Amino acid sequence: MIECPTYGTRMKHQKEQREIHQNTMVEHMIKLQAECTALPADACKRLLSTAVAEYERRIGAVLESSDSCQFLGSVFYASTILTTIGYGHRTCYTTWGRAATIIYAIIGIPLMLTLVNGLGKRLFLRRSAYHIHNKYLISANRDSQWPPVCRTMSVDDVDFPLALSLGIVILYILVCSAVFMMWERRWDYFTALYFFFISLSTIGFGDVVPESITFTLIGFPFYVVGLSLVSVCINVIQAKVERSCDLTVEQIYLGNEVTINSGTTTTADEPQAGNEQRPTEAPTLDVIQIFRSPGEPLLNLPRARFGWNWRAHLRNGKQKNLH
User: Fold this and answer.
1) Can you give the pTM of this predicted structure?
2) pLDDT, tens digit, for every residue of 240-284?
3) Is 40 found in the same domain as 104?
4) In angstroms, what CA-CA distances link 150 with 121, 141, 142, 256, 263?
5) Displacement of CA 195 from its chain's centroid (Å)
6) Domain identity same for 178 and 223
7) Is 116 buried (19+), middle (13-18) or exposed (0-12) by CB count in 10 A?
8) CB 235 within 8 A of CB 121
9) What letter does residue 202 receive in the DSSP assignment?
10) Does 198 lie in the same domain as 80?
C-alpha cells in the first residue's frame, strides 16, 4: 500500500516515455523511406535494422549478453544457493541444471547453516571467555575445590548485552553498505544499504544486483560474517528468553507451598514452635510437576528445604535429551 500512491505516476511516466520513443521511431522511419528510394536494397535494410535496434535500446528491450555459463557466473550462482539469498536473475533452464541445483541445495545449505551458526557462537563466546574463566576460578576458590569441575561453555553462561549485539550488526551493515557503494558507482548510499540488508536478511528480491560479478564474489565473505553476526543476535535473544524462563521457574519454586485444594499455605522456611503441627485443609505437595512440551519427560521439582539444586537438574535433563 505504500507504493500505491506512486504506482500510477510511474506507470504514466513509462507510458509517456514509450509514446515519445514510438513517435521518434515513426518519424525516423518516414525519413528513411524517402532516403531508401535512392539506395540499394541492402543499404536500405541496414538503415532500417539500425533504426529498429536504436528503438529497442531506448525502450530497454535489448538482449544483454549473459555470463552465467562462465566460471565466475557459476560460482556466483552457487554462492546465492548456499546463502539462501537467491536473487532470481540467474537461474537454470534445463532439467539437469535444476536437478543439480536441488541436490546442491540439499547438501550445501545445511553445511552453510552449520558454518554460520558455529562462527556466530564463536564470536559470541570469545568476548566473554575471560569473564567465564574468572568466574570459574572464583567459584572454585570459594568452594575449596581444585581442580574446578570442567564443563563446556555455552551461550547460557554468558550475559551478553542485547543492545551491544544489535549495535554491532547495525554498524556492520552501515560500513559494508559504504563499501558496496564504492564498488558500484551507479548506486547511492541508500541503494547500497537496501541491497546489503536484503542480502543479509536472505530475502533477495533481485531488483537491485551488482553489475560486476568479481566484486560480488569478493563481497561473499561479507555476507558470511554478516549472517554470523545475525546468528549472534539470535543466540543472545534465545539466551535471554531462556534465562527469563528459568527465573520464572525459580520464583515459582522458591515461593509458597502449593496446596492441592484452596486452603492455608505455609512457606518452606517458616519456623514452627516445638512439635506443634499447623493444620492444613489439604496436604501440601512434596514436588512441583512441570509439564513440558510433548515428547519430553515430566519434570518434578522437590521443595527447597531438601537442598535440591533445580538448575543443575534442568541442565542435566537438557543434556540427557540431547544424547
Assistant:
1) 0.62
2) 888 888 888 877 776 544 444 444 444 444 444 444 444 444 444
3) no
4) 19, 14, 16, 35, 46
5) 15
6) yes
7) buried
8) yes
9) T
10) yes
